Amino acid sequence: MVARLFGILISCCVWALPVAGASTTDADGSEATHHIYAVYWRGCEESCQGFKDYLAEHLPSVRLTIKNAQRQPQRLPQLLAEAKKLKPDLILSWGTSVTLAFAGRMGERDNKNYNREIPQIFTIVADPVGAGIVESLEYSGRKNLTGTLNQVPEKVNINAMRAYLPTLKRLGLIYNQDEPNSVLKKEELAILAPGMGLELVALPLAQDVEGKPIASDIAPKVAMLKSQGVEFLYLGSSSFLDTHRDTLADAAIANQMPLFSPYERLVRESGALLSVAARYYEVGRLAGELAEEIIIEKRTPGDIPIARVQNFAYVVNMGTAKKLQLYPSVEMLQFVETVNH
């Protein structure tokens, strides 16, 4: 049972929804009436599929161009230039890195090098305020920009770990200095943890000569956190650690340390113990709702508050629980979904 909380390269594919292909017409052969240019940091994943499905159901004549940045920031200026040249009706930017490359920070909103005119929706941005993308969640501060918020409040995450391990006093975090989201998460937790009676032990991943994180440093950092008395390891917000999720999860299990992940697939597909997350597919559908408001209802993006996901899923990996000999309480089993028995 899934708990619900708060009720609450440059390779390209073009879809003339709902049929995939290199077409620019809709299903009945008529001209596509609108064009959305979507840029994803790591290809078309769950939120992308949710966005596509929503458009197919509600905006079937929209032409959707999907671009994959392949996790390479040097590709983003070229994609932005292409988007400006094509002048789509809407731009969708996935993640903090893509959104910053397209929209810039608040202090750069008048910089003509960024997108200032084309309506834009951002999605899968963990902290749009902290990243300097928007002024607030109620008002973006930019006429052409709005987006979605999928972040689970950190108090909820910490309370979930406490519900699983009531004696929790020391929380561990590995962060990537090369990712804005990862650094922001470290800073947020450093402020929040003391007020919740926790000590945060945060370690940065080693970097190569180009300033990129080194994957082989993940396991040693996990062992170092264990040696410093960390009782629960938190993935935080990092595409890099998500990419190397098996290495992280295996290291956590090897050190007999539970891993909490904001990404549900780390519990379902890797060895993370616990997750509280907004499902990316639903975040994609939420972005589709915003697209409909902007394209069909002709609403100005800056007049639309950041749309927040209201429903979160609690998932526990029972296979990992067995390896750690750390099982959820009977009370917790009443509201979590258990997998990998």
UniProtKB/TrEMBL annotation:
Protein name as it appears in the record: Putative ABC transport system substrate-binding protein
Keyword Signal annotated: yes
Gene3D superfamilies per UniProt: 3.40.50.2300
Record key words, sorted: Signal
Coiled-coil stretches: none
Keyword Signal included in the entry's annotation: yes
Organism: Marinobacterium stanieri
InterPro entries for the chain: ABC_transpt-TYRBP-like
Extent of the signal sequence: 1-16
